[in-house]
Give the backbone structure.
Amino acid sequence: MWDLFLRIFHWSLAFFFLLAYFLVTDRLRLHAHAGYTVALLVLFRVLWGVIGSRQARFVDFVVWPWKSIRYLVLLLRGRAISYLGHNPAGAAMIVALLACVLLTSLSGVALFALEGSGPLANTFVANWPGDLLAGVHEFSANLSLALVVIHVIGVVYSSYIYRENLIKSMITGKKKETFNGEPP
Ligand code: HEM
């Protein structure tokens, strides 16, 4: 089950991240505003991960890394069970995606501040090293995109293994329940 906020969050994040990455790098102002939106979306998601509905909460799906790895092995062997919320492998990807996308957008806000624009202009950030920030921004943006590609491959593969259209679930919010408890 995905609540309405989570679904709006997901498709807005996908839209604004891809917009910032692909369409507007030559239009800096638009690129920056798409990036601010990404940062705000992720910050709201973190809050929702604490106060939101059951499947949205981090305590419901974040597990130790070895559980994610064990689940991934089962998934690759086609023997994984499906979850009403995120499965342990998907959970690791979500944490990585949220962290990487947030780093990308915050380093972008800091870079923009160096040019005297944006919410952090004329603050302590103005003294930060531009080359380092530019490197972090570019690296984290490319890493985020690589994670997105793996994420989408994972979603399509899991849909095939579970015989359930997970993309449709992220639109309608409805998911077939087969397992909903402590990961094995
Ligand atoms: C455009 C193609 C995309 C498709 C088809 C897609 C599909 C999905 C699906 C089906 C889920 C739920 C997975 C599950 O059942 O456990 C999901 C979750 C998620 N996706 Fe995507 N996704 C796409 C793009 C993106 C992009 C571009 C980002 C980030 C930049 C992203 C970030 C996330 C996050 C953070 C979650 C976890 C949702 C939450 O609990 O907050 N996705 N995605």
Q: What stands out?
A: The first helix runs from residue 4 to 23.
